[in-house]
Structure prediction request, 458 residues.
Amino acid sequence: MSVVQMVKIVGLGAVALTLSVKWLGWLLCRLWPRKISRGPLKEVFFFPTEVACTERLFTPDSPFPCPCPLPHNVNTSFTRLLGHILSASSSLDLCVFAFTNLDLSRAVLALHTRGIPIRILTDMDYTLITGSQIGAIRRAGICVRCDSGAVHMHHKFAVVDSRRLITGSLNWTLTAIQSNKENILVTEEPDLVLPFITEFQRLWDVNDPARRNLPSIAEKAASLVLYRD
Amino acid sequence: MSVVQMVKIVGLGAVALTLSVKWLGWLLCRLWPRKISRGPLKEVFFFPTEVACTERLFTPDSPFPCPCPLPHNVNTSFTRLLGHILSASSSLDLCVFAFTNLDLSRAVLALHTRGIPIRILTDMDYTLITGSQIGAIRRAGICVRCDSGAVHMHHKFAVVDSRRLITGSLNWTLTAIQSNKENILVTEEPDLVLPFITEFQRLWDVNDPARRNLPSIAEKAASLVLYRD
Prediction:
């Protein structure tokens, strides 16, 4: 076989391969549009949500059905939110203004029991509200830092496994979930997740209690200048 | 030229074309990564933001520089947020819990003056807070509907031109912008924008004052059943 013939055969083979891959992609997108064509995870839930039993999320392997009177095996905005939190396998970073919801507190404690590293950043004033779960979470040994500025640490976001962002208007309270009109957006789009990871780390460092007791470099520099004067 | 030769030439041409397009795409992605490779708009801003003059956003064609003492031509989280609002060319749907910020109110009124249809949905209780801009906006002739439920309409999102979603933890207040720790996420990703458009329309319809005075179909059915009994 001559070199020219070889080039022609390779060329035609490349065309056939390219077209096959394109057509296969098109076919897969038609068959499973949500899984194939949409890229990273993107979900939106709205609240208030209907009240449903969440026991199966905490004890999925239990052979006994939950005897509570609430509807079972119902997929609500809240069960989806809980599912995303409980899906954490390597880390949970939570930055939330108000945290009183018992189911979400149970989810955080369950992750802690599984040995998953958890960091919680919250507003100092709102740790004192009735029903705040921050005390129980701290007593369990989870690392919590409080923003004690004169203004509010008003974020309501979580980053699961440094990859999945959960953000929106919803505080982690029963009123927010069962009564208010609220939204939650879940995404694994890196362009949206990475800024939140960076901001969490920045706020975490700024609110390090060890750091607060030490004078900042700027303060040290100012004192040196004063000394020289 | 024989048919076989023709097939071979077309085949090689197709290979060359495919490779050229791929290489051109790769080159463009390297040259303008944010514009070419990232798909729909995705931005995240954090607050508090530094205070800067916003006059150039409202009067971009003015030949006179603003004489105010604030920093000029500074790109802050707030100027970017204002820019997105002022970019509206066909519609603005706003669903916000608290609205007291004068610059954002000015932006909404400027869009109204340009003839852009605006719909605002807010929490009834929070229209009564000090500095609420809802009264001024209503007086200008912009359509506002209030959610008067016993709980809060706690959303903080806007949809610009039925295409761009602005959502996050940030209420449209001066404290939120200049003092609190807050976040705003801006995206044109259809999977994230469309649910917010649908939810806005649902809440808009539910809070139609004309509808509230009429008995619902369920109430009518109930009264018919009572009449039959």
Summary: Chain A touches chain B at residues 7-8, 11-12, 14-15, 18, 38-39, 42, 44, 46, 48, 97, 147, 149-157, 167-170, 175-176, 179-183, 185, 187, 189, 191-192, 195-196, 199, 203 (CB under 8 Å). The longest strand of chain A covers residues 42-47. Confidence is low (pLDDT under 50) at residues 223-229 of chain A.
